What we know:
2 copies of one chain form a homodimer. The first copy, chain A, is an alpha/beta fold. The first copy, chain A, has a single domain, classed as Aldolase class I (TIM Barrel). Helices cover 39% and strands 17% of the residues of chain A. The first copy, chain A, has 9 helices and 8 strands. The first copy, chain A, has helices at 33-42, 57-74, 84-89, 104-111, 124-133, 159-165, 183-188, 198-201, 206-224; strands at residues 18-23, 47-50, 77-81, 94-97, 116-121, 137-141, 172-175, 193-196. In chain A, strands 1-2-3-4-5-6-7-8 form an 8-stranded parallel beta barrel, surrounded by 6 helices. The radius of gyration of chain A is 16 Å and the shape is globular. Mean pLDDT of chain A is 92; it is low at 1-10. Chains A and B meet through helix 2 and helix 3 of A and helix 2, helix 3 and helix 4 of B.
Amino acid sequence: MTRAMKPKMSEARPRVEGLYVITRADPCRGVSHAEVARAALEGGARVVQLRDKNATTRQLLEAAQTIRQLTRQAGALFFVNDRLDVALAAEADGVHLGENDLPVETARKLAGSRLLIGASASTPEEALEAAEAGADYLGVGCIFATPSKEDAGPPLGVGIIRRIKAVTSLPIIAVGGINAKNARAVLEAGADGIAVLSAISRAQDMTAAARNLVELISTFAVRQK
Amino acid sequence: MTRAMKPKMSEARPRVEGLYVITRADPCRGVSHAEVARAALEGGARVVQLRDKNATTRQLLEAAQTIRQLTRQAGALFFVNDRLDVALAAEADGVHLGENDLPVETARKLAGSRLLIGASASTPEEALEAAEAGADYLGVGCIFATPSKEDAGPPLGVGIIRRIKAVTSLPIIAVGGINAKNARAVLEAGADGIAVLSAISRAQDMTAAARNLVELISTFAVRQK
């Protein structure tokens, strides 16, 4: 593929913001990653992240390829959690890296400008480090207590968003226990987007749950103007 | 780095053969991946593969970086099981792909000539498919019953080595339940190398166990000439 056919991401890097849905397969309910993604996109999600620490690489790749199609059709961004190899193989827009994953610097060296890189940060120091290493956005949390991440530390509250906004201009995606009731406080603190997991995957009507959050974000954005 | 400084692998692709040790950390015995690798290399292993399906990516990368140093010092090859991203990040010689991992073709597309690719095969059809997709060697097994791989099918016996040798010239690394007692039969069937896991990691003296197998392989090779 020539450069003219596929402009480099660095030339027009999309901004990560809005409703950011992290998929979780729920075998007990018979809900797959792709189904969560499809419902979230129908509800207006701007970003989907595929996260599955238990799947085999082949299973993860197959789910990623399906979600790549869905997000492309919806004009939404697609990230793979942790797995840079799967992100590249599925032609995802990016990879999200937590503290147990590849260092941001290593991932940037391997992926060049082929992938956007999201990095988890729970302190201003981690935020600065990720920014210097080449991250494109920050996943900041956990803001509130959450049943979705067993190894999460104590909730940080919305104050962490203000503290991190003070040291970097990278987009902040707040994560951890966010739902329709507390999302407004997160946006008021300056988050550029909110990431949800249980709020969608555990909802009776996943599309309605996503739409509700998207409207909440839009309403807030309009009032800010 | 210029081309002159680092010749492409395709220009002088090393042949995968000899004693191929798959590391297994044994926390109960306090044995790390690096310690298995070190002992195996001291015993003369020509290839080390890091395999750990439970480690985090960061843990795997750290083990890979240590084993990369050890194998480089010993002039041995280093493969990472499954994880193409970790193999690239640690500058391993290659990645080994099983049926639950990335397809060989996908991995070849992503890695180009930066990595050797090993592929598991348990039938001549799978062997041919892997060869056409760009594999550099085949891991063939399980030859004998093994406690190391719970999801292994019934043992194939040494006959599978002859059957696969009949359809491809790729090096064959036989795997599965191989030890000092049955290795000779495996070599007589035409294997270019033997991969061991328990035979090293469960040995009281891992270096002696590796040396014993290396001598067995050398003696066999000399007699063949």
